Every structure is written in structure tokens, then in C-alpha cells.
Amino acid sequence: MKEAAAELVFIPAPGMGHLVSTVEMAKQLIGRDHRLSITVLIMKTPFDKSKVVSTTQSLLLKAAEERLKFVELPQDDEGAAAVAELRSKNAGDFFSEFFNMNKRHVRDHVTKMMVSTESGRLAGFVVDMFCTTMMDVAAEFGLPTYAFFTSNCAFLGLIFHLDSLSRNQDVTELKDSDAELEVPVFVNPVPAKVLPGVVLHKEGGSKFMLGCAKRLRETKGIMVNTFEELESYAVKRLAEDDMVPPIYPVGPVLQLVKDEKEEDEEVIQIMRWLDDQPPSSVVFLCFGSMGSFNGEQVREIAQALEQSKHRFLWSLRQPPPEGKIEMPSEYQDLNQVLPEGFLERIAEIGKVIGWAPQVAVLSHKAVGGFVSHCGWNSTLESLWCGVPVATWPMYAEQQMNAFQLVRELGLAVDIKLDYKRDMRYSSIEPKLVTADEIESGIRRLMENGDKSSAEGIKQKVKGMSEKSKVFIKEGGSSYNSIGRFIEDVIINVHSS
Questions:
Q1: Better pLDDT: 260 or 169
Q2: Which of 285, 295, 302 is nearest to 382 (CA)?
Q3: Which domain of life is it from (predicted)?
Q4: How many CB atoms within 10 Å of residue 318?
Q5: How far apart are CA 72 and CA 42, in angstroms?
Q6: Which terminal CB of the chain, N or C, has fewer other CB atoms within 10 Å?
Q7: What number of H helices and E strands is found in the chain?
């Protein structure tokens, strides 16, 4: 007798880093077991409708799986403007109101699924770390909630620890302090200066994040986009904590398929330029979909690259106008921000570009180092491709990722660990990183003079790259972890 189907409802946060990896996770699950089907509910943000819609459509075309459906939830025009306004004032209140506003739409669609003859038996919700308020909706239907954590086990362990601390102290008082914390999932003391800005935000951000941590403890289990061999210490400590639900390290979960933009002539020219460079000679600078700098910082980077004399490929994006909540854009004329004569002087060794096909670039044999913002997806991509990193974190949990890579795992060198950029685009700018600091980081990343640092890191990254590809295959730790998650879902369906 054919077993009854089990359908999961995935609810990702609408950010690119969350949406893409969530869809890739869903594809892996249905690819592993014919009993599963998945519906992904897409929430539209009031300030970025077109990008979320186009991204969703692109992901849907790439997925092309019968048992994987995408549903774009409606957006209330009434209240959307007020929610959007909160983003520039209070990140915590924005997230809370945005997800609460979407509860009704999730409830309405799941009600339709419950009565649909086409839908299999609902097995539960799988929510993003930011979407834990949707657990209330799952409970209304008597459904369990699981989570897909798009970051790593160390960050998960950190927010659990801060949640515990918050019962006896105000963790926002750690902001700008020189304190160091003993965090169970870290071997080394964690400086308060590398804690994510949002958890120290008095006007709502801290309350929101710690609230998410509390709800994550209530889930049936948490899939984490990492692999056990990368974060063995953190995984072990979480497994020993009776207050933490089952953890499933299922990564690296990456989108490695070719992007449509890679067919553009500009991208073809980038790859041709790399083809002409010697192996492992190019340092690649790229700071994520939200990464940009003011003119003064851009000129310091340019000076550092010119002084280092290393070959480079630099993805340089224009910041949004002050006070505007927009994504970085392309410069119409790079000379308006770069030092006079810079492009002519570096023509033989460097190339400055706009948007970059990051995975394709990191996969190229000419690339030997990556100056990165340390977003977790970018970190996993660099490890997958075997390219060592020089850390320059900017926002979210990136300072924690940088600290982990440099101090805990020895897989990166640092340009900065505690650099923070206010992604609400306030007039407050972070402290300038000087050309000398940047040059020093690039030299430590690219040169082998100190065998104990650069060469040792390159070998460790190469080894981790090989492991990341082994452990997602049949018999590997992440493969087995996905299998355990699926079986737990099926068991919970039959026992309900």
C-alpha cells in the first residue's frame, strides 16, 4: 500500500539570503523522499515588491518540481505604508508588525489546503528564524512547527544563550562595552563588540530577536544550514542542551545553478578577464546584496589595492541616497567615486565591476582570496569553492561569522571583526577602515611569507572544501541528518 503523502508548509523570510536557501532546502527534501510535498508561502515586503516577485518567479522556474509549489501571499495596501515606515525607525517593530500582518494570509491559505483534495496530509510548518510568530497559526490547526535556520549553529547557540542571560540582565547594556562573554557554543570568549547589532538594539530589535530564540526552543526540531564537521564543537554543545530541540545540520545548502545574469555580455567579459589571470592570483572583493560604502571608504580600498600590487576583481556598488531604503545600485561612472587616474593605473592587474556572479567567480581557478562581508551564504560558498577569506563584516550576524572563522575555526584572516554598518542607512557612518589596514589583510590573505598563517589557512580551507562536498552525499553526515529529519516528520504525521 502506498503511504499517505506528507505536506510541509515552508514560510521563509523575504530577504534574498533567506528565500534562496529555503527553496534549495525544500528541493533537497522532496528529492530525497517521494512521500513529501512542499508549499512555500512567499510574503511580499511593502518596500521591495518587484524584487521579491521576480526572485520568486526565477526560483519557481528553476525548481520545476511537481511536488514543490510557490504561493505569493496577498499584501494589504492598508497598513503596508505604516509598516514600511517602521523599517527606517525600528527594525524590531518592523519585523514584528510585518509578520503579524501576514498571519491572516497564512491562515487563509492553509485553511484552503486543509480542505483541498489535491493536498496531501499536512505534516507541519517549517518557519524561518524570523517567522516564529507563525507557530501560532500552526497551533490553530494542530500542526507541529519545525524551523530552517539559514545561519549557523554558533549563532543559534548565541541567541539561545542571550535569551537565557536576558532573564536576569538587560543584554542591550552590552552595547559598546569591552565585555567578553563565555558562550557555551564557542571555545573562546566572545567580545561584546562582535555581537549582532540587532540583539543590542534597545528600541525593539533585541526584544524581537530574543523572542525568536524563545519560540525556536518550542519547535519540534531545527534544520541548520551548516555541516557537523565545520562546527563540531557548537553542534555537540547544542546536542547536550536539554532546553534545545533536535538539531539537524543539513548543509551546505547552496544555490549552485547558473544565474540568468551570467549570460549577460558584462559577465562574460568578467569571466574572460579571469581566464587571462594566473592561477590563485586574484583577490575578489564583494560585500553582498546590501553591501556598499561611502566615497571616502571607497578611496581607501582603492589605495590599498593599488599599494598591494595584487591582481583584483572588485564588485563596487553605489549606496542608496541618504534616508532612502533601497538596495545598492550600479555606478553610471566609476570615476565619480574612485581616485583620479585609478582605473588607468590598475588596468593591467585589476578590474572594477558592479554586480558579480559570486559563485562563478569563486569557482574560477584564478581566484585565490575573497574579501567578504561574511554573510553565511557567502561563507559557505567560499568554503565550497576552497577560497580563503579576509573578513569585513557589515550587518546582521556577520561579525559573529567573522569571529568564528578567524578565532574559532582558523579558516580566515581579519581585516575587521567588529565593523558595523547601520543597514537602516542612518547618517551615522562606521569608523573608517584605512588603506594600510586593508592592504595588510590582503597581503596576509594572498601571500605565503608566514607559513603559519596564510599557507596554513589555505590548506585548512581546501580540506574543508573537500569535506563539504563529501558530507552532502549518501552516507555523509548532512545526508544522514536530512534523512533523520524526514523520518521524524513522517513519524509525527502518523502519530497525530
A1: 169
A2: 285
A3: Eukaryota
A4: 17
A5: 5
A6: N
A7: 17, 15
Say how far apart CA 383 and CA 463 lie, in whole Å. Answer: 9
Distance CA 247, CA 387 (A): 28
Give pTM, 2 decimals. Answer: 0.93
In eight-state DSSP terms, residue 237 is H
The cell numbers describing 137, all together, are: 497559526
- HEC string of 361-406 equals HHHCCCEEEEEECCCHHHHHHHHHHCCCEEECCCCCCHHHHHHHHH
Of 335, 347, 399, 338, give the one whose Cα is nearest residue 373: 399
The percentage of the chain sitting over the pLDDT mark of 70, rounded to a whole number, equals 86
Total residue count of the chain as it appears in this document: 496
> In this structure, what C-alpha cell is assigned to residue 335?
570615476
Residue-wise pLDDT for 242-287, tens only, equals: 999 999 999 999 998 766 665 788 899 999 999 999 999 999 999 9
In sign, the C-alpha dihedral spanning 193, 195, 197, 202 is negative
Nearest C-alpha neighbor of 102 from the set 132, 126, 59: 132
Three cell numbers, residue 91: 527594525
DSSP single-letter state for residue 475: T
In this prediction, residue 158 carries a pLDDT of 98
The sign of the dihedral angle between the CA atoms of 193, 194, 199, 204 is positive
CB 283 within 8 Å of CB 331: no
C-alpha–C-alpha distance, residues 145 and 126, integer Å: 6
Q: Which three cell numbers stand for residue 147?
A: 524551523
